[in-house]
Design brief:
290 residues, Conserved hypothetical protein from pyrococcus furiosus pfu- 392566-001, ParB domain, Arc Repressor Mutant, subunit A, 50% helix, rod-shaped
Length: 290
């Protein structure tokens, strides 16, 4: 049964997931005591908007729970059931002081439970970009999905899945801005690959840039030549510079490469006459024999 559901494709929609498109006995809704239900372990959503729950609770008071919750038997608590899809309705029903809610009971394994919970939230656009990315990553890590398989399961393109997962590579401070809604997912994607995504993110927020402007800003930052802080010269190098400056009568500069084995010797001159004098002095320097 589970494999048949997976072959049909989780991207078909919630009606297919809940079994509303067939007449299987286990797909028939029934009422269940609300205290027997437990939140799903694979719920990808971490935050539930309080105002939204209150509005849903008011609707439930007036019209009841119109769509049944999808549940499975709890793996550890006897006579309890785990919510696979519909936790928001369950929470709102409690606010509305209901004692029972309609449910559909099905046998669902852990992998399909995560897939269904993810699809439900994606179709209702309830997930933040980070929650979506974490759910995709969980499918990859815990259930050995490929990105292609994840994309097929949730009805998204592979590129969308890949780009969303990459948001997890952003610094914690940027992910917090994304989670709080200060930055959108489009803004965050523009920061991927930036040398200093936090500084860019703060500039985007400060200037109120849209996504296209943020992308241009990030592109410009990537094409700027890197400005490395020059290494501080050691005492020996400074001493040699001083000795050569005195010997030649003009400033001498030594820049040592980062590997410490090579470098550049620069001799300054102020006029052609001074250059001629430097050439004569250098020609008089005896050549060391090999």
């Amino acid at each position: 049964m589970i494999e048949d559901a997976r072959r049909r494709g989780l991207g078909r929609g919630l009606s297919a997931l809940l079994g509303e498109e067939d007449a299987a006995p286990e797909a028939v809704p029934r009422t269940m005591r609300i205290d027997l239900l437990r939140p799903g372990r694979y719920q990808p959503r971490h935050q539930f908007d309080t105002a939204g729950l209150e509005a849903l609770a008011q609707s439930i008071r007036e019209k009841g729970v119109l769509q049944p919750l999808l549940v499975r038997r709890h793996p550890t608590l006897a006579d309890n059931f785990e919510i696979v899809a519909g936790e928001r309705r369950w929470r709102a029903a409690q606010l509305a002081q209901l004692h029972e809610v309609p449910v559909v009971l099905r046998e669902i394994d852990d992998r399909e439970a995560l897939e269904i919970a993810l699809v439900e939230n994606l179709q209702r656009q309830d997930l933040s970009a980070l929650e979506e990315a974490q759910a995709y990553q969980r499918l990859l890590d815990e259930f050995s999905h490929t990105q292609e398989a994840v994309a097929q399961a949730v009805g998204k393109s592979r590129s969308h899945v890949a780009n969303t997962i990459r948001l997890l590579d952003l610094p914690a401070a940027v992910k917090q801005m994304l989670d709080e809604g200060t930055l959108t997912a489009g803004h965050a994607r523009a920061l991927l690959g930036a040398s200093d995504p936090l500084a860019l993110g703060e500039e985007i927020v400060r200037r109120g840039l849209n996504v296209r402007q943020a992308e241009r800003l990030a592109t410009r930052s990537k094409t700027k030549p890197s400005q490395r802080t020059p290494r501080e010269k050691d005492a020996d190098t400074r001493a040699v510079e001083h000795e050569l400056t005195l010997a030649l009568g003009t400033p001498v500069r030594i820049d040592v490469a980062r590997n410490g084995r090579a470098g550049t010797l620069s001799i300054s001159y102020q006029s052609l006459d001074q250059l001629d004098e430097l050439i004569r002095r250098l020609k008089r320097v005896p050549t060391a024999m090999p």
